[in-house]
Specification:
Elements: E1 6-10, E2 24-28, H1 32-42, H2 47-50, E3 61-65, E4 68-69, E5 85-90
Parallel strand pairs: 1-5
Antiparallel strand pairs: 1-2, 3-4, 3-5
Length: 95
């Protein structure tokens, strides 16, 4: 990576305790996967809430790039541009 792509990653309220209470974190990465891995490197306690033991993103964790669900783009390999905004949006079950 020759140039650093810095993006803002928004953290949902239930996960803020694992990132020092912050509502957003600046991370670098050329892809969504790289940005999330940097988040985990900076804040290791959040890892179990995002990833399975096998290292896969948990099925109930949705990641949005700007306003688009990355599942409908290129998943975790979705490329990032400087200034993009990522949001972690946990699925909510109701009854």
């Amino acid at each position: 990576m020759t140039e650093t792509t810095t993006v803002t990653l928004y953290i949902p309220t239930p996960l803020r305790g694992f990132v020092g209470g912050d509502s957003s974190v600046s991370v670098s990465g050329e892809t969504v996967s790289e940005a999330l891995r940097q988040l985990v490197t900076l804040h290791p306690q959040i890892k179990t809430h995002l990833y399975t033991e096998a290292g896969d993103l948990r099925s109930f964790v949705n990641i949005y790039k700007n306003d688009d669900d990355v599942r409908y783009l290129n998943g975790e390999q979705t490329t990032l541009q400087a200034g993009d905004v990522l949001s972690i949006v946990p699925s909510i079950a109701g009854g």
